[in-house]
Amino acid sequence: xxxxxLFLTGKLAEKQLNQILEKMQPDFTYTVHQLxxxxxALMTADMIARRLKxxxxxxRIVLPGRCRxxxxxxxxxxxxxxxxxxxxxLKDLPLYFGxxxxxxxxxxxxxxxxxxxxxxxxxxxxxxIQRAYYYQENGANVIDIGCLPDTPFDHLEDxxxxxxxxxxxxxxxxxATDDLLRGANAGxxxxxxxxxxxxxxADEVDAIPILIPEQHTDIGSLDRSIAILQAKNKPFxxxxxxxxxxxxxxxxxxxxxxxxxxxxxxxxxxGVGNLTELTHADTAGMNALLLGxxxxxxxxxxxxxxxxxxxxxxxxxxxxxxxxxxxxxxxNTLAKHISPELMALHxxxxxxxxxxxxxxxxxxxxxxxxxxxxxxxxxxxxxxxGLHTAIDPFDLYPELKVENDASHAFYLGVELARAxxxxxxxxxxxxxxxxxxxxxxxxxxxxxxLHTFKPAGTTLKKT
Length: 463
Fold this sequence. Notes:
The chain is of the alpha/beta class. The protein has helices at 11-24, 45-51, 71-77, 93-102, 125-137, 156-165, 177-185, 201-204, 219-231, 249-262, 273-276, 283-297, 314-330, 355-364, 397-400, 406-425; strands at residues 4-9, 29-34, 60-63, 83-85, 112-117, 142-146, 169-173, 190-194, 208-211, 237-238, 267-271, 301-304, 371-375, 378-383, 386-390, 445-449, 454-459. The radius of gyration is 28 Å and the shape is elongated. The model is unreliable at 443-463 (pLDDT under 50).
């Protein structure tokens, strides 16, 4: 017996909801029930509890995506029927049910992120620990302590011991053997980096070495180091070194492929910072591509940095990217429609409604409140007095008649500015909501009451 789903909606959306469900030809039966409220987004859990007298023998109830309130309590009130919020836009309903069918889980990953504190000698112990917690919150598994050439680091041991006391995995990052020995003896778990001439260090300490070529592109020296440690049955990680664009980037990618082909079982590392830090382009896409390479080559460790301002979200982006790539690989699917968190500037479906549909919505409005929507044609604003369209919001101002209402003018200015930015970039615009920049911003969910200009609360969005 197929599942029966009850969809609750408002007067303005009822017709469209029925049309979308008919076109979907779903494998479930359904009932669409209009709850007596004009705008579905104004629906609340308490309102539903008061007004819904018949659940139509539903196995599940789907509410409008913007419905507020405690739906768990509502479920109990309605006899335990499972209740969930659907997508915020009706046009996304087919995709919503498609995603449900995939059961994509983003809680798993295979790649460890080594997050480097590049200026560690300049930080106090407390500052280093604070930075480590920030990196950990953004997805780091190992905190890498970067040493600086010709820079005294008298408190190296203190920083490593402080991090270990806080429960962090730690790596020490230097080409100076003295730094590596000090770091390992202080409790570091990993050594970055050893090569053929410094391989003796691996016999002196318990820390796991990351191996690099003796000379920059010398894979032969890397092969010899691998053979020596394998003969001793010692753990290690191999890093053939990723080079910046126009300084050997393509050749270095080939080098990673060659090492993986010759050594199919060894643990490997990719230093993504040489691309994210040294390329002035948005880093989200770079991280997606680099973690995709890691996924294909079974590279289970990356070294990431956040030195440049333009790379200030690189660790969070790498965390999201590793989860997306893991899910895509596990589900044998393309890395599409898994998570929108790396779609910072654009979106897969920025304009859910055509102009003709917006015109139909506008024709049903009988109140003075303005609605704002976007389509490929531009920004649209409408109320009972008519529909107006423009590419530049300033062109709409004469039509709004808010010269003597500063509060309303301010609110419309903010919303129209958001709509213009969304239209220009190809992003989804939802009135009364901040634009979604994915993991590119630290605060991705912010609610503000623009009528009273008082912040109504800010939350951190976790992935």
